[in-house]
Amino acid sequence: MSTDNAIRELVEKVTNAPGYTKAVGTKVESAEPGFVEMSLAKNDNLLQMNGFFHGGVVAGLADHAGGGAVTTAMPPGRFAVTVNLQVSYLAPAKGEKLIARARAIQVGSTIGVAHVDVASRSDGTETPCAVAIVTLRGVDFPAK
Amino acid sequence: MSTDNAIRELVEKVTNAPGYTKAVGTKVESAEPGFVEMSLAKNDNLLQMNGFFHGGVVAGLADHAGGGAVTTAMPPGRFAVTVNLQVSYLAPAKGEKLIARARAIQVGSTIGVAHVDVASRSDGTETPCAVAIVTLRGVDFPAK
Amino acid sequence: MSTDNAIRELVEKVTNAPGYTKAVGTKVESAEPGFVEMSLAKNDNLLQMNGFFHGGVVAGLADHAGGGAVTTAMPPGRFAVTVNLQVSYLAPAKGEKLIARARAIQVGSTIGVAHVDVASRSDGTETPCAVAIVTLRGVDFPAK
Amino acid sequence: MSTDNAIRELVEKVTNAPGYTKAVGTKVESAEPGFVEMSLAKNDNLLQMNGFFHGGVVAGLADHAGGGAVTTAMPPGRFAVTVNLQVSYLAPAKGEKLIARARAIQVGSTIGVAHVDVASRSDGTETPCAVAIVTLRGVDFPAK
Hints:
- By secondary structure, chain A is an alpha+beta fold.
- The first copy, chain A, has helices at residues 3-16, 20-24, 55-71, and strands spanning 27-32, 35-41, 78-89, 97-107, 111-122, 125-140.
- In chain A, β1 (27-32) and β2 (35-41) form a beta hairpin.
- β3 of chain C pairs antiparallel with β3 of chain D.
């Protein structure tokens, strides 16, 4: 199994484990060392009162994608947990789908930082809706 | 109806409208001008893989509570939408319940800022798990 | 005078007005609508105890550059003041020069957001040292 | 020498070492484990074009105070360096003096977080002008 396959499997395993990311329907679009793309299809339980994706849902996707980007850039057996999440909302997330692209911009022995662009897609057109910076620290991967 | 009752009704109406905050079970514990307390009971769909509340869920509750604190401090007919959300995670949210207390620390003609303390509660003991600063801008309340 | 010249003159005028940005030696490298590049040469009064640029100096340059990027993207007569500044430090700023490149990523009627990359340069090589997101609101340009 | 004296001496030593904090005139008002208060008197080199303290100067004081609060809460020999700085500006810093009060709200084995209130003082009256959250990581104190 190639390294990239192993990385994608790891990201999918964490994303699809029982819990929040699985419950909301997070989909791993791509994963490689230091970069992941994830998406979330619109459904009634993810919206705010105007019918746009809720800011908390945008933040949650950004957080999860940022964690994936940094974890995949860390040595095997290490896992990144969020220390600080910063989200700037640029426009209402009006589309049918949220897409987050996260890139590790720094990975050190204890700290990693990811930059995340979030867009919403409607009829094939993407509109940026948020940008996030996620700061994480590395811990040992939880034993099974 | 007293002002405070009107404020609580507004916060509950927004929180219980169909969508994310209702779907996850957000409960309004108290609401007055410039301050709201909200809680979220643990359930399997809100957790990360270690069984703690997911960081995105913590962020979402902080965002919603911060919006409530600033909206209730604004003139009637105005509504606060998040521009920037910043969350620092202090400890794993291991408890049975998340509690967010949000206070408006600045409310101007266009911008408001809320400070939010988030704790998790277990067996009656609260442990701080996050602190957030939410920056919002005022818009006219959406017409029905 | 072309628009771009007018924009550069505005940015230089604000930067070189008596006060902090002039006192520390901020230099406008380039300015166009929605983008500015600024630099700061090392001197003893800008460092922390290890001889690197102080984090506050990095933050100040990012703030000022972000303000320039958003102001130059606003209609004439409007000026952007910082509401929220978020800086992630990626590496010590060890070089001889700090360089900030700020780009407006959202400019609306009340709010603008800039993304800023800060690098330090040594012997012609740049090393990223920080990334910042600056949220600003537009106000009328102060009358003379 | 009592512990508190040792702590104050450490904070003053770092603050008064040649460099930015000394150059701008940072004064240590008080220091104890997990809390520091610092001030900065107005002078022409610290202002923006309206005559208020520059946002970068506010950020720099918040950063330095936050670092002091976390460092003093760490075991001897450890030192906190900033990973992430978040500043929300609440009002123009119009006073004669800036005052930052920083409190460590979390100190772990690798990460510490400080909450900082910044006010400006004029004729004995303080007006809150910013609130900051500083995230830091602990490193070994640099050898002399």
